[in-house]
Write a structure and sequence with these properties.
Distance between the termini: 24 Å
CATH architecture of the largest domain: 3-Layer(aba) Sandwich
CATH class of the largest domain: Alpha Beta
Radius of gyration: 18 Å
CATH superfamily of the largest domain: Response regulator
Shape: globular
Number of strands: 14
Low-confidence stretches: none
Strand order of the largest sheet: 2-1-3-6-7
Largest sheet: 5 strands, parallel
Order of helices and strands: EHEHEEEHEHEHEEEEHEHHEE
Helix content: 25-40%
Structural class: alpha/beta
Length: about 220
């Protein structure tokens, strides 16, 4: 599952990220409105959104996400230091899917995520990705090729999930670097990406192809 944290509290975001990565979630962080405007939300399942960023009100961001057909179905959990009932009701009435009061226990956040991903928009049937002879249970984080379980690392599973959700789409190496290596100064991780994809391709064997276009773009296809 792909989760995005939108919060300008860098330390809090980092701690949440560490916790969720241990659960094998793919996590990305946005700390300001400018980054939000340029972010690619393709394949995102859930957003943790702080009610207020220094440069933007959380309501504006929530409204933009829900008004955009590309992001309107993404589950959004609001995070706030306000515990008043009227405040919670206000945000839930503004199309937020859930509301979490800071500070919160890690187990509560995990439970909220599970509860929201059990809803009709992300049902158990949607946890299963299938492309060609590859089957990926994104909830249990298990990959099957030709009906047999194949062991992938956490990074490889995150890559596979992203590629399977974006089959036949042209994906830039820069986006891969930023999404999976948090690298905004690309191409500093260029060699790491090449090596990772080399071993990743070998595990896929003949089941799928990750074609390279002009050395800077990828296309994932299954046979």
């Amino acid at each position: 599952m792909n989760i995005v944290i939108i919060d300008d509290e860098i330390l809090l975001s980092k701690n949440i990220e560490k916790m969720l990565v241990k659960q094998e979630y793919s996590v990305q962080k946005i700390h300001n409105y400018d980054d939000f405007l340029t972010f690619n939300f393709s394949g995102v399942d859930l957003i943790l959104l702080d009610v207020s960023l220094q440069d933007r009100n959380g309501f504006d961001i929530l409204q933009e996400l829900k008004d955009n057909s590309l992001t309107s179905s993404i589950k959004i959990i609001m995070i706030s230091g306000h515990s008043e009932t009227d405040y919670k009701v206000k945000w839930l009435d503004m199309w937020a899917d859930d509301y979490l009061v800071k500070p919160f226990a890690p187990e509560e956040l995990k439970a909220r995520i599970r509860a929201n991903t059990r809803s009709e928009n992300i049902s158990p049937s949607n946890w299963i990705l299938e492309s060609g002879n590859i089957k990926f249970d994104t909830h249990l984080r298990i990959v099957f090729i030709d009906g047999k379980e194949v062991v992938f690392s956490k990074k490889e599973k995150a890559l596979l999930e992203f590629f399977m959700k974006n089959e036949w789409k042209l994906i830039s190496k820069q986006e891969i670097a930023q999404r999976f290596w948090k690298d905004k100064s690309f191409p500093s991780n260029d060699n790491i990406i090449n090596v990772t994809l080399h071993y990743f391709r070998k595990k896929l064997w003949s089941s799928a192809k990750i074609q390279t276009q002009s050395g800077e773009w990828y296309i994932f296809t299954t046979t």
